[in-house]
Amino acid sequence: MAVHVLNIVKSLQKLTINSRCRLAPTLHKRLIPELPTNEVIFANTTRNSTNFFNKLPAEALWKGITSVSNAGKKRGRGKRVSKKNIKDLNRGQVIGVGKANIVWPGLTAPIIRGKELVEQQKLPEDPEREKKLSELRDRMGNIRHAKLSPLERGWSGSKMPGRSIGPPDPIGEDTFDGFDTKVLELKTVFNMKGNFGRKRRLSVFVITGNGNGLAGFATGKGIESRTALRKAKNRAGQKLMHIKVFRGHTVFHDFFTQFGKTKIFVSQRPEGHGLICHRAIRTICEVVGIKNLYAKVEGSTNVQHVAKAFILGLLRQRTHEEIAEEKRLHLVELCKENGYFPKVLASPTSCRKTNELKHDEVLDFTQYCLDGRVILKRKTFPPFYTKHRSWEIYLKKQEKLRNHDKVRVHMKAEYGELRSFLTEKYPEARPAKPKLKSEKDANEEQTEN
After folding, report:
1. Burial 312-321 (b: 16+ CB within 10 A, else e)
2. How far apart are CA 430 and CA 205, in angstroms?
3. How far apart are CA 245 and CA 255, in angstroms?
4. 122, 164, 182, 299 — which has fewest CB within 10 A?
5. How far apart are CA 398 and CA 172, in angstroms?
6. Residues 273, 355: one domain?
7. How far, rounded to the nearest angstrom, does the alpha carbon of residue 330 sit from its chain's CA centroid?
8. Key word Ribonucleoprotein present in the record (predicted)?
């Protein structure tokens, strides 16, 4: 009987899986009646083979899902996949311990404790369990970046350019109190070598300053961003330069500067104007202590070229005393903010006379500071409606009233009231002043309301 069953098992192994599934019921009906009732035989019709999931351990399987091959990394795949961003959510989890703490005999507790049989029971909840799990996962790494406040964000979202990374590290007894370092550029650079292949590093360009005319910039490289930022920050602290700031808020004069293909025209602005310029120039001004400025960038907008050109222009500034001594003339300020009232900013030790001036000498201050250059300004065209007939009709109607507002403001500033040339002769020729309410009337109105 055993030989007969063995032959049947061998014939089953020769069949394919599909044919085995089809023929198994018919063979079962033929074989079962022939077997004695008191014998039970288990015939394993499946082939003993190891599965893919049985060959590799759990770590290798997880690595195949979460990691990227070296060829994929070179092609730019898996930029967000790293050990810092991967969290083992099973860590800290205990079977039977959770929102509902239950004792499971044979799984989380022994079946028999001493002479007593352990029964399934519910335990009280742990209020600090979620807090402990969150702290444990925070130490593993961050899946999502922490949300930054609007003041901490850089030029674009949570990226590093434009963000503050604090003062440089102290060197001995020298501490950088009041300094702040801001990132201007963070990029990935590659260096190809014959023995190591393509070597990847991060390059960081930063500027540091105390907001009072002292600043320095530097570049740092490293495999990790933290290392590159620390190197650049400390190098910038060792390369400080003194930059002149006029009246603590702007540059001394308009100037032109250039580095490579980058050209910058910088203009002085009054207090309250703000920084209207390239974002890299604005960041440098915040670190240096300049609050009001206008700058126009032409040509290449490479961040390092823009920063170097602007700092070069700041260092080449000349004070008003230096300009007055160089020209041997008085330097007089005429600005709209002071009502074009002349104010002497600097005077030379010996001033030239009018007959000593050359006929082709540049006496315009802006043109002199720009080394003879003239800024090309876009021509302003009149509005389209000025060509219509209706505009001429409107001007004729408004001719008697067009200067009334200016005259009113001038009279109030000059005389303190609106008056005419006949006011002195006829004092009653004044506009009626509104009656001021007495305290009694004001109190009555409050009570009525």
Report:
1. ebbeebeebe
2. 68
3. 14
4. 122
5. 74
6. yes
7. 46
8. yes
Q: Indicate whether 233 and 271 sit together in one domain.
A: no
User: ∠ at Cα 74 (68, 76), nearest 5°?
Assistant: 75
Contact 319, 278 (CB under 8 A): no
- CB 391 within 8 Å of CB 382: no
**Tokens read off for 214:** 């002292």
Q: Summarize pLDDT for 41-60 with one digit per residue, the tens.
A: 444 555 556 676 678 887 78
d(CA 242, CA 214): 5
Query: d(Cα 61, Cα 273) in Å, to the nearest integer?
Result: 61
User: Is pTM, for the whole model, over 0.90?
Assistant: no
Q: What pLDDT is recorded for position 149? A: 83
Q: Count how many domains the chain has.
A: 5
Check pLDDT > 90 for residue 426.
no
CA distance 433 to 426: 17
> At residue 188, what are phi and psi to the nearest 5 degrees?
-95, 130
Whole-angstrom Cα distance, residue 98 to residue 104?
13
Q: Is residue 407 part of a domain?
A: yes
Exposed e or buried b for every residue in 366-405, given b needs 16+ CB within 10 A?
A: eebbbeeeeeeeeeeeeeeeeeeeeeeeeeeeeeeeeeee
Give the distance, in angstroms, between the CA of residue 402 and the centroid of all CA atoms in the same chain: 49
Q: Which DSSP state fits 415? A: T
Strands 116-117, 121-123: pairing is: unpaired
Eight-class DSSP state of 442: H
Pair 161, 225: CB distance under 8 Å: no
What confidence tens digit (pLDDT) does each residue in 199-236 have? 999 999 999 999 999 999 999 999 999 999 999 999 99
- 8 A C-beta contact, residue 236 and residue 181: yes
| Cα(216)–Cα(218) distance, integer angstroms | 7
Average pLDDT over residues 346-367: 90
Range of 10's domain? 2-34
Mean pLDDT of 93-101: 79
| Domain identity same for 262 and 236 | no
Judge whether 301 lies within some domain: yes
Same structural domain for residues 186 and 111? Answer: no
Q: Are residues 267 and 238 in the same domain?
A: no
Question: Does a structural domain hold residue 72?
Answer: no
Q: Rounded CA gap, 418 and 436, in Å?
A: 18
Helix or strand run (H / E) with residue 59:
helix 58-66
Answer whether residue 143 is part of any domain. no
pLDDT band with cut points at 50, 70 and 90 for residue 407: confident
Span 308-312, mean pLDDT?
A: 97
